[in-house]
Design brief:
Length: 329
């Protein structure tokens, strides 16, 4: 029996602290033993004999934004099997099992002595955070940032799921590194934006000023240097990355509360709107698959105003808003 399987089974007879659960989040984005982890968790998932109740949907939707899930493929499995298990059982299976593995088997030195903080931004909000080195972070809706309470090591490492704009205090002796499921973004002192939501098909880094060095996890031997007004866009499905010139004001429009759609698919629009307005959107048709929408909302439009405009762009679209739920037909 593998160590991972033993650890997951041992979880059911133990309780772990919040600090260990946070450290799990950091470990989970690591790409080591991905196939074995997924296989073991999938088998345990399939063997659970649990029925969902009326709170399953809301609990699971909250879970999506709380967990630092690093593999989109596993999230898709969760969506397909949502009717089988409630979020309350999913949380400990994922978090505690991997936290234990990380602490007991990681080769990182003295990890137990590092105190991590987790900063979560709910859907519908944008928040500002000051880091221990006085660097500033503006986090977009539905984002999670995990960082040491003190930058005592040789580098300033942070772990991001979501979107954030960093204004980094320069320290030539201590590089600032943002780690996501796809890439490591290293800087000394600069202003840049990272977008890496776990449920998105793409991730990106955009530079406003200074210089950033990017290393993709699937190409560790290669580095990508960005200059101001450049963006590195990574396609998770194809594994292909590209660097292009962009309008930095458009990329950072979310900082001012603006919403900019640039040739977005309906699937991308739904995820963006769910985060922005803190709603759940149900799409009951595949007839919008070929739609690509470009639009700009800069007047603080409410959700009903947004969909009124979207319907003008897609005249055959039908929708209904019921509280925190939106149905598209």
């Amino acid at each position: 029996m593998s160590k991972i399987r033993q650890i997951i089974q041992e979880y059911f007879n133990n309780t772990y602290s919040e600090s260990i659960r946070k450290k799990f989040s950091i470990w989970l984005v690591d790409s080591k033993a991905t196939e074995e982890k997924d296989k073991t968790l999938q088998e345990i998932w399939d063997n659970l004999n649990i029925s969902a109740d009326t709170s399953t949907e809301s609990s699971y939707l909250q879970l999506q934004h709380r967990l630092f899930i690093g593999r989109k493929t596993y999230r898709r499995q969760l969506f397909r099997k949502i009717e089988k298990i409630t979020a309350v059982f999913l949380i400990p299976i994922l978090s505690v099992a991997f936290s234990y593995f990380y602490l007991k088997n990681s080769k990182l030195p003295a990890i137990e002595n590092i105190e991590y903080a987790e900063y979560f931004v709910p859907n519908g909000e944008i928040r500002t955070l000051t880091l221990p080195d006085s660097s500033k972070v503006l986090l977009n809706s539905g984002s999670v940032l995990i960082y040491p309470q003190k930058f005592d090591g040789k580098t300033r490492d942070l772990y991001l799921n979501g979107e954030a704009c960093f204004t980094v205090v320069r320290d030539e002796n201590k590089p600032f590194i943002v780690k996501t499921q796809d890439m490591h973004v290293e800087v000394l002192g600069t202003v840049f934006n990272v977008s890496s939501y776990a449920d998105s098909g793409n991730s990106s880094t955009t530079l406003e000023s200074g210089v950033v060095n990017i290393r993709l996890k699937n190409k560790q031997s290669e580095s990508i240097l960005l200059k101001p007004n450049e963006q590195m866009l990574y396609n998770r499905k194809s594994g292909v990355s590209e660097v292009k010139q962009v309008n930095i004001e458009t990329i950072l429009a979310w900082k001012e509360g603006h919403l900019v759609l640039q040739s977005m698919s309906m699937d991308e629009i739904i995820k963006t709107i769910e985060r922005r307005y803190d709603v759940t959107i149900f799409l009951n048709s595949n007839k919008y698959n070929k739609e690509k929408i470009t639009a700009k909302f800069i007047h603080g439009e409410k959700i009903n105003e947004f969909f009124a405009v979207l319907q003008q762009l897609i005249p055959y679209m039908k929708y209904k808003i019921e509280g925190k739920k939106v149905y598209i037909y």
